[in-house]
Design brief:
It is a single chain. The protein has 856 residues and is of the alpha+beta class. The protein has 5 domains: 106 residues, [2Fe-2S]-binding domain (DNA polymerase, domain 1, Orthogonal Bundle); 55 residues, Uridine Diphospho-n-acetylenolpyruvylglucosamine Reductase, domain 2; 113 residues, Enolase-like, domain 1; 192 residues, Aldehyde Oxidoreductase, domain 4, CATH 3.30.365; 137 residues, Aldehyde oxidase/xanthine dehydrogenase, molybdopterin binding domain (Aldehyde Oxidoreductase, domain 4, 2-Layer Sandwich). Helices cover 28% and strands 22% of the residues. A hairpin with a 7-residue loop joins strand 12 and strand 13. Helix 3 packs across helix 4. Belongs to the xanthine dehydrogenase family.
């Protein structure tokens, strides 16, 4: 969820998009927080809400409020944004339904320089009634005078320290540097929290707990921005988004030769996380976190940036590469320099350009003697290849005094490979790839310096100049082919018309109600699950002692509490009590007064195991141990055995297709409400198959299915992942509701959802295909092996679809095809969009293999 935070400042009040799930509420004191509900509603739409909805930018709608607020923040700061700014603003948002095209189309209408490609007539269809997907002329204009003002009650500057006392955590928010240093001395182990982008992830993902937290967000001394002739001093509390703006302004004002370090930092900031994270994360926090894959630290270190640290009674300057920060020290500001004869460059390689950690990155600097190409000083730093930023110090020293030429390049690459040792245990692995990138980055740096100094590049190297050019980020252009509406079609006939999504407006305004948006029910409790940590094991004991001591715990639900059948059809055992067959299998559930209490208690349950051999994980393991579900499926026609004898060529091969997570935006969510008589229950559940949940709950409770009323209003994404799996959680919650006689709310966290539910079936295909010299296929023998997991779920249906569609566009006159579901010790895989069709790519590999083999 994206919200917009506005902080009172003397000159203007910038608006920052933030990731709400990471932002502690204590850090928002005296700030204005705006969500999509605050800027408009279905009766009075804000222009952003209207344009995203009417441009068809909403499907499931779960991501739509975040899209609205990211665009809203951009428009508050830049009322007439460029298309590049729009793309940057939305780069931190995720949508699983639309493919982003209609969202961008709606947002681009705010850009004066943009062209809505979907509304441009095709040259071959110059008709007056050419259909438009939406009419921009009907949109409300953006009127800055109608925007929300900063609340007068928050226009105060408090000069005292604030303390927030929670159940387990004390939050200190000092207002002066003196108070901050005193707190740092008193609580040296307490983290300093600004944007919470690092500490928040540690807490949410790894359960790291800090009883005391210090937030210097109101300490004005940490927001210094002081440019001078030597460089620029930037306060440690300046956010990365602010840093990017500050550096960009300096680049426009100063001569190019004085801003090489700034340009290198901007290059890294452009792809570092998304706009929301950059608006929260601070420069000091980024440096102090000492991330091995930090994109800024190698550049800052190479450029000689100076950290100015302060502790109670002491002040010191140091370079990060010389010594670590002490616990009681505070990073006050960072100074960067600008020198004429220096060249600074930054490099990174990641799986994606944006929103992806760097696999390896680097910062490099070289300074030449005046008017020469002789190296006077050099620094090379790498990230992603060790536990922290590493310096190629020996390489840099050895190159001093050398001329900047190809002989130096060869020597530099040799020295760097010798000095930078990457162990197999290095973060992220990929040792050989990272070794290659270390010298590849230096090669790019070599070419960049030659070009920047207007030196001639030798002919052998000219062909590599393209490697130093950034990929152009083009404005997305789309082409859609659709049938025009017949002029004789009645106006009341909606078929083929670009009608706005029925819930599109509500989704854009935040009025659309998903399961977890439903108001709390009286006496409502929350449920969390204790799941197996072993793939195949016998349960020896379950100790609930510590879990029951957590505040707010009402009960712990186990197999003995199930009044009916302790199983869900196709999903296996509901609450395991003797053995577990996969990591993530539910063993018991904690019911508590809050979600936090329930999850905390679930982690306190101690379960002892005894491993059972073998643990079957892969398809290869299943084949080895003959672990299959029966009956086998198959198709046979013609006589493949005889046809192979007539074939001119017989080829054999294997194809392996990985699984995939549905990654729906709304995790599995439901509410079970006991009606108080005749064992009747109301279930509000996010599911694609409402009857499956109804029948499963009835069977588990041992009541007729007409006692269970299942309801679903809308689903925040599913893609097949919510066909059968919600029945597991609905059944567990129903048992808890029946035992406690109170409503139960179940909303899974992302990691928990992915652990329990699995996704698309991995498949291994083995084929034997016979063909003639002219390429005609005469016979094929194919075996599909799919990793079903620990229960059958939808595996047989997926295999049947794969079998029926395996011939694709080809004719197999003689075919013998088998499909086998492998039983493994993984969470059971389930339905996924495509449902058997993607697995038939095996068929497409056979003709390609034939072509390569026969050189045709």
């Amino acid at each position: 969820m994206i919200a917009v935070v506005t902080k009172y400042e003397t000159v203007g009040h910038p608006h920052y998009p933030v990731t709400a799930c990471l932002l502690p509420i204590c850090s928002l004191n005296n700030m204005a927080v705006t969500t999509t509900e605050g800027i408009g509603n279905s009766a009075r739409l804000h222009p952003v809400q209207e344009r995203i909805a009417k441009a068809h930018g909403s499907q499931c709608g779960f991501c739509t409020p975040g899209m609205v607020m990211s665009m809203y923040a951009l428009l508050r700061n830049y009322p007439e944004p460029t298309t590049s700014q729009i793309m940057d603003a939305l780069s931190g948002n995720i949508c699983r339904c639309t493919g982003y095209r209609p969202i961008l189309d709606g947002c681009k209408t705010f850009s004066k320089a943009s062209i809505s490609y979907l509304n441009v007539k095709c040259r071959k269809a110059q008709k007056s009634n050419f259909p438009l997907l939406f009419n921009e002329k009907e949109f409300l204009p953006l009127d800055k005078t109608q925007e929300l003002i900063f609340p007068p009650d928050l226009q105060v500057s408090e000069s005292w320290m604030k303390v927030f006392q929670g159940e387990r955590v004390t939050w200190y928010s000092p207002s002066t540097l003196k108070e901050l240093l005193e707190l740092r001395t008193k609580y040296p182990e307490a983290p300093l929290v600004m944007g919470n982008t690092n500490i928040g992830l540690q807490t949410n993902l790894h359960g790291v707990f800090h009883p005391v937290m210090i937030s210097p967000i109101n300490v004005h001394d940490l927001y210094t921005v002081a440019p001078d002739d030597a460089g620029i001093t930037i306060g440690s509390a300046v956010t990365l988004a602010q840093l990017k703006t500050i550096l960009s302004e300096s680049v426009h004002k100063l001569p190019k030769h004085k801003t090489k370090t700034f340009q290198a930092l901007i290059q890294q900031l452009r792809t570092l996380a998304g706009e929301q994270i950059r608006s929260m994360a601070t420069l000091g926090g980024h440096i102090a976190s000492k991330l091995a894959i930090s994109d800024l630290n190698p550049v800052l270190a190479a450029a000689g940036a100076q950290l100015n640290l302060i502790s109670k009674g002491k002040y010191s300057d140091l370079y990060k590469r010389k010594q670590p920060m002490c616990l009681i020290q505070v990073c006050r500001n960072i100074s960067t320099t600008k020198k004429c004869e220096e060249f600074v460059s930054a490099f990174r390689q990641a799986q994606r350009e944006r929103n992806a950690y760097a696999i390896v990155n680097a910062g490099m600097r070289v300074r030449f003697g005046e008017g020469t190409d002789m190296i006077q000083d050099m620094d090379i730093f790498y990230g992603g290849i060790g536990s922290t930023t590493l310096s190629a110090k020996n390489t840099s020293q050895a190159l001093i005094g050398r001329h900047w030429n190809e002989e130096m390049l060869q020597e530099a690459c040799r020295l760097a490979l010798e000095e930078i040792s990457i162990t197999p245990s290095a973060p992220g692995g990929m040792v050989e790839y990272k070794r290659t990138m270390t010298i590849s980055f230096f090669f790019k740096f070599f070419l960049q310096v030659l070009q920047n100094r207007n030196k001639t590049v030798s002919k052998p190297l000219v062909i590599y100049l393209s490697s130093i050019k950034d990929f152009d980020t083009e404005i997305p252009k789309t082409l859609q082919i659709f049938q025009e509406i017949d002029t004789k079609q009645p106006a009341r006939d909606p078929v083929g018309r670009p009608i706005v999504h029925l819930s599109g407006i509500k989704q854009a305004t935040g009025e659309a109600v998903y399961v977890d948006d439903m108001p709390p029910v009286d006496q409502e409790l929350f449920i969390a699950f204790a799941t197996s940590t072993r793939a195949h094991a016998k349960i020896l004991s379950i100790d609930e002692t510590e879990a029951r001591q957590v505040p707010g715990v009402v009960d712990i639900i186990r197999a003995k509490d199930v009044p009916g059948k302790n199983a869900v059809d196709g999903q296996g055992t509901l609450f395991s009590e003797e053995t577990v067959e996969c990591v993530g299998q539910i063993i018991c559930a904690v019911v508590a007064d809050t979600s936090d209490h329930a999850r905390r208690a679930a982690t306190k349950i101690k379960i002892a195991y005894e491993d059972i051999e073998p643990a079957i994980i892969t398809i290869e393991d299943a084949i080895k141990y003959k672990s299959f579900y029966e009956p086998f499926k198959g198709i046979k026609h013609g006589n493949a055995e005889e046809a192979f004898k007539t074939a001119d060529h017989i080829l054999e091969g294997e194809v392996h297709i990985c699984g995939q997570e549905q990654f729906y935006m709304e995790t599995n969510s439901l509410i079970v409400i006991p009606k108080g008589e005749e064992n009747e229950f109301d279930i509000y559940v996010s599911t694609q198959d409402i009857s499956t949940s109804q029948f499963a709950v009835a069977a588990v409770l041992g009541v007729p299915s007409n006692r269970i009323m299942s309801r679903v209003k809308r689903v925040g994404g599913a893609f097949g992942g919510k066909v059968t799996k919600p029945a597991i959680f609905a059944s567990a919650a129903a048992v808890a509701a029946q035992k406690t006689k109170r409503p139960i709310r179940c909303v899974l966290e992302r990691g928990e959802d992915m652990l329990i539910t699995a996704g698309r079936h991995p498949v291994s295909g083995k084929y034997k295909v016979g063909c003639m010299n002219d390429g005609k296929i005469v016979a094929a023998d194919v075996s599909f092996y799919t990793n079903a997991g620990c229960t059958i779920d939808e595996s047989f249906l997926v295999l049947v679809v794969a079998l029926v569609k395996m011939d694709s566009a080809y004719n197999f006159p003689n075919l013998n095809c088998r499909a086998i579901a492998c039983k493994t010790n993984l969470p059971s895989n389930t339905a996924f969009r495509g449902f058997g069709f993607p697995q038939t790519v095996i068929t497409l590999c056979m003709p390609e293999h034939m072509t390569q083999q026969n050189n045709k």
